[in-house]
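job 3f2a | input accepted
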Amino acid sequence: METPTVLSGITSSFINTPRLQTHLLTCGAEDGLPILFIHGNVSSNLFWEETMLALPPTYRSLAPDLRGFGHSESKAVDATRGGRDFADDLHSLVEVLGLSAFHLVGWSLGGGVAMQYTLDHPEQVASLTLVAPVSPFGFGGTKDVAGNPVASDYAGSGGGAANPEFVQRLADKDRSSESNLSPRLVMNSFYFKLPFKATPEREEVFVSSMLSTQTGLGNYPGDMTPSPHWPTIAPGSHGLLNAISPQYFNVSHLADLNKKPPILWIRGDNDQIVSDNSFFDLAYLGQLGAVPGWPGAEVAPPQPMIAQTRAVLQRYQANGGHYREVIISSCGHSPHIEHADTFRKLLVEFWRKR
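job 3f2a | predicted structure (354 res):
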């Protein structure tokens, strides 16, 4: 497989594990304290390059591509396992690399994977950093801080929630700016908050990263089933968006772990993707009139994603753990890109206290 072009100081390699051929970026001293970075949805490990290079050389940064993204093997996702396909892939990589303990950092979807990994292997996680993470109750289809579903079949979540034109443009490797649904404009409008804009060179890298997403029933977005409940779609059993449907994804019992690594939660104050009013939540779009037939907030309120995460982390702390929430001003969904210096300082300060 062709090795992608990466920034100077980053090493790109392929690691064969019993589960997956994984593309891995590494940086820093080989005997340094290991940091494992997990990227988000419709992206790849290339979104971590600047962060990796900015860290002190005493750290050993490792950033894998998840299955179906970047240059890792594109195996189908069994959505009925929630985030466990991704977490098990990661554990297989950790074993091959011989890591016994490390700091874990997850962005967006990667935050959900990191929470699942911490649930399964808490003894290996020295600390957990959640960067604009998906809610512990998944994405879409829930109505309150306890994660109760809007409908018994979790209508409003899963593979049918993706915009078909956006999915097609990903499949077509569309690099244009001709539509608000082109990956480039989605990134600049929702991953970042204006006036931030990547340099032209890095923008091309990030667009290429987005376009590495494997589309289809087994990957992004996955399949769907019809529902008698608004908005008439419910999760299927295959693919990525179904894997983070609350029908299958629930990591809220993180709060009940016996061993609780310290948690740093970093988010932007203008995140339009993971929000209590997310522009990617069909219920919020229905409230705005963009999805017809919305039955009202009594039946299908927007998912309170931030409130859900805070409620779980507050329970984590009440049960003997520790967390800190940091909100970065004038920031969208990508604090590590938009406010790189602030983000790096927060990480290093957090790790040095451990």
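job 3f2a | The CA atoms of residues 138 and 246 lie 5 Å apart.
job 3f2a | closed
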